[in-house]
Design a protein that fits this description.
mainly beta; 2 domains; 5-stranded antiparallel sheet; 0% helix
């Protein structure tokens, strides 16, 4: 954003963000996080629902209360995110089930089972469980089955 042409945007920034971790984000690099409200302060948190807007990729996580770094890829920009299960190129990717603590912040092929799923990325390569899969950020779409 050009702040000279858009002076109302003077306190904005581009690129990575640094916020305190709401939960332990250590060893979560490549996982997705969301912004969370902690008594009026912005924190980074793992997703808690499959339809969360968790579009920040953790670059450097830390324990709760310490600052962590995350970055949100632009729409149509490629990135790598930890995968749950398998996927093929072109598959819609949504959040893995965050009620399983080890899966919170991972992507998976969008299920066809009953539930609400938010497509956040499209797979650009074949992926296997645990891989940091190449994917492309897309405009979010919610599907309820």
């Amino acid at each position: 954003m050009n702040t000279i042409l858009n002076p109302t945007q003077s306190d904005t920034k581009q690129g990575a963000v640094t916020y305190p971790a709401a939960v332990d984000l250590t060893a979560r690099e490549g996982y997705l996080a969301k912004l969370a409200n902690n008594a009026g302060a912005t924190n980074l948190a793992l997703p808690t629902a499959t339809d969360d807007f968790a579009v920040l990729i953790i670059g450097s996580g830390d324990v709760a209360g310490n600052f962590s770094i995350a970055e949100s890829p632009s729409v149509n920009e490629t990135c790598r995110v930890v995968l749950k299960g398998a996927c093929s190129p072109g598959d819609e990717l949504s959040l893995a089930d965050p009620s399983v603590p080890a899966d919170a912040g991972k992507l998976r092929k969008r299920p066809t089972t009953t539930g609400t799923w938010r497509t956040l990325f499209i797979a650009e390569e074949t992926g296997v469980d645990g891989q940091i899969v190449l994917c492309r950020r897309v405009g979010e779409r919610t599907t309820t089955i």
